[in-house]
Design a protein that fits this description.
Length: about 450
Amino acid sequence: MLPSANIQKSNGYKPLRTAPPAPIPDALASRPAAAEIMPIIRERFTSAQMVNIMRDAAALRPFRTDEFGNNPAAPSSAHIKAANELLHRLRRQLLAWASAIQPSNGQRDDMLSPRRQQQLLQRKERAQAWIKLVEKVWNYYFKMFAQRQTQFGDWLLAADRIALDCYQAIYTNLGTPRSIPTPAPFTLMDTGLGPATFRRGVKLTRLGKRANPFPIVQLPYHRLVNPWTLGAVHHEVAHNIQSDLGLWQVVPQRIGQRLQQAGLPRSVIGVWMRWHKEMWADLCGILLGGPAIVTSLIDVLSRAPRKVWRFNPRGVHPTPYLRTLINLELLHRIGFQQEAALYDQLWRRLYPQNPRRSIPPAFWQTFSQARQLVVDTVCFQPYSQLGGKRLVDVVCFRPEHQQMTAEAAQRLAAGTDPGIVPSRFLVGASRWALERELSRPGQITTNFYQGLLKR
């Protein structure tokens, strides 16, 4: 259907004709008659392409701050502003492509030439490709923000508050003031996938290789249903904290230097360095949330023996069997020796040493020494990025915090307010209540979310 005159006027274009053209001659019409009609058809075609693109650009509008609700679960104005700024940059390029299609008054005759028609088709193709890109980005944020209007909005808000508490715990205790990152992490539910995060500033394919404007923590539905497994929030947020603090490059360097000084083989050192991101996120998560983060991780890592023993020297995730033992090393060093010993015994009984395991002898023989050095390097050595402090001095879950967590568990089970316990401790409180059967799992879940939503 050809665009109406009203649409053309609304976009700043004059209607091409106010009366319908004469009927197009059939195949037997004379050549002069066809030549007379064809310029009209070409001009209408050109105008229609411009109208389509301009209307597409207008439809991919910025988001309003109130269109996803006004309840606490709604995305903040900072998140909507960040998304709109990215969309604005993409739409600006789209409008530039659209303008390239529209001829000026002095070019209208020239636009009917075969050469200019080919240019029109090429520019139209570029503009349509850009429309698809902008629409993809727009749709990504639309679905993310729209989740907050569903029945899962409260769950995601609760996860937001845990994530924010993790950031606050770190940034309020650095040795020197740092610029506060904004916007805060934003949680997203995605089914059929595991927990993941998209760091601030990382170029994402789903955003057309543009920089992600704020941290996104992706949580699967099955984690939200069972809040005692939400140690994933601490882990994924820790990835973002490491990046925001500028520790992404220095940590593997420090690990490599420490292991080299200890005389470990170069091949072994390279693997430990590649594991730095996941190890830092695990260890920081434990310092933020305590022993419950280890048990939450064990929930995920306890799989068939062949998968738990699988060693990949090029992977970024530690071998599952070794990963648990690395985390238990930190748990032991921060005052939870009994818990560390019990989990170690459980883990080794689940996976007795197998002579056919795939872990190379050089790595296995140096593992005990290396894990001590790596945990010490990450958590017990000062960093300028932390204001000259050690990570364990910036944030640390201590035995007295476990007492607070146990008391909060009793309150969660009873359906009373958990009190002033930090939000990041409530994951441990829900697990404490579950493991000791203080209440039914469904009731613990309900009270967990209610306790966070009232804050």
